[in-house]
Amino acid sequence: MAETKKKLDLRMVMKNKKMPFIAGGVFLLILVLIFLVMQFAKDNSTETNSRSSAVVFVIDGKEYYKDEILKIAQYPMERISQSEESTVQEIFQLQKKIVNAEKLGVNPSEADINDEMSQVLTDDIKKSEGYKDEYRAWFDLVARANAVDRYVNQQYAPGYEGYALVFYFGQRIDYGDDYKPEGLNDPALIAQDKAYAKDKAEYYHAQVKDGKMSAAEVSDVIKADPKLANQFYTVENPFKSSQEGDWTQKIGYSDVVDAVVSQETTGVSELKIGGGYVGGNFADETQKKEMFYYFTALEKVPSTKVVSQADFDTSLVSLNSEFKYIRDYEVNVQPGEDVDINSLAKPEAEQPQQSGVQNTEGAQ
Fold it and tell me: Is the entire prediction scored with pTM above 0.70?
């Protein structure tokens, strides 16, 4: 009996020794739960604070709140006295354009956007009296929307850069109204010119492809060789879009332009043969003759594709969007509250007038 009691006492001792560990674990669990609850409350408070005003419009399921939109609206409202409602409406249209472009796979590069920014946010504006850094948000939105235009209703995307290396042999094939070359259409002389151009093209193509010469060096060689010269046109290398002209204008040869567009990655293309229209008869396909060998060395390709204006507009019309802007005097709107604009009454003085809020669904 005494032995049994001793064993029971021993179990009690062991149990009592475990109690501090169990109590400590429970206390730690409570602390963790308190921390998680506080963190959740903090995150929820942050989200509430960021949405401390009414929804002014919705685009593709995303809500845009008045406080954030008015931050963007500062420049046109403060510097050119544009009304709040018209400015919010304009921001709505610009943002719709950007979202629509994204849905179509049109994503202008940061270089595109920065270039547009330099054109809308000029030094004169930044140096003008009263200019504030907060105004940049407006110009950033405008620049992003303008950058979309580079890829809408354009035959070619603007982002190609590199070298078009043309080895011309059409000196006795092509002619103009006031220019008739000696030996025009002479088969023997044409064959001689073509063989010379092919030999040079094959040699320099291999040099560039093997990394023994740069495309810029080969471009200089071609310019210095009168036997490879086109009396009517010279490629401007390196080609790229700029304010002075589109990259396609720098190349000039339609076959080369099409080859550039078909090349999806940077690097050196295969050697190809291209043609031109004899006597400038661009509408007559029978007048297109082989006139040059060429290859391209692309250093940059565009980050996005181009879409037609019709496709862009069709997508814009079907884009799920709603303009929900409400002027302050119309109703006391609670943060994040969805309000039926059509049910709102105007003040007495404005009763005869139509609602100042426009239904812009599908507007462009």
Answer: no
